[in-house]
Protein: Class II fructose-1,6-bisphosphate aldolase
Organism: Candidatus Acutalibacter pullistercoris
Amino acid sequence: MLVSAKEMLTKAKAGKYAVGQFNINNLEWTKAILLTAQECNSPVILGVSEGAGKYMCGFNTVAGMVNGMLKTLNITVPVALHLDHGSYDAALQAMEDGFSSVMFDGSHYGIEENIEKTKEIIRIANEKGISVEAEVGAIGGEEDGVIGGGEVADPDECKMIADLGVTMLAAGIGNIHGVYPENWQGLNFEVLAKIQEKTGTMPLVLHGGTGIPAEMVKKAITLGVSKVNVNTECQLAFAAATRQYIEAGKDQQGKGFDPRKLLAPGTEAIKATVKEKMELFGSVDKA
Ligand code: 13P
């Protein structure tokens, strides 16, 4: 059964480790992540962006697939199904369709509107026992069209949003989605420390987990990060393994074109990536 992310993240914050959110795109992704979580005896959060939700034929289809797998694969570790960067309407829809956790990304609204909308999402989520992630932070440091710094949140605004009763808070500390540019300045630990000081026991979320050096991730966890989001890294691993299979001509040998064979190396590559991250985040054996 799906669970909200609340308990797993409260434990992670207290135990100074982080739970990984791995974004899913299809059946292979979902199966790979769930099997790895079970093998590692680790809690896990399956992230679904609005775009991925549409691609997979709607949140109801995703919830059906995930619930089916939990049962058929005998998954006993805690699993949350989480809407990633949801708009207000998408958050309502995901809650309706059986997600156990939602992110309402109101970071592009002014702080007042962000607060109003977040409050309403929390009210509905509380009725259903669903966890809520909110985001604070504006895009910073742009030069020649290249974003060098990423988002840096205002610790006071973080406190305001945290006090609304969200389950976990995403705060920009120089992190960005996708592969980091060469001139990336790294995470802003000074701001992270201030956010943690202001928000106390609130589990903090680090987005853009792909490509952040292991030492920085570990340090962020010591400063209150309890959830790390990873998406692009699984995509790169899947693409590289699939490319290797095809370039080696394996799809043209025997029944190598069978999708169950063609997609197997990529699926294994996702498993290896997820395992490596769970070890880095310290969530192994924390189910
Ligand atoms: P990456 O794609 O950079 O790993 O970011 C994932 C993420 O933060 C999803 O919200």
Q: What stands out?
A: The chain has a mean pLDDT of 93. Strands lie at 19-23, 44-49, 79-86, 101-104, 131-136, 138-143, 146-152, 168-171, 204-206, 225-230. DSSP finds twelve helices and ten strands in the chain.
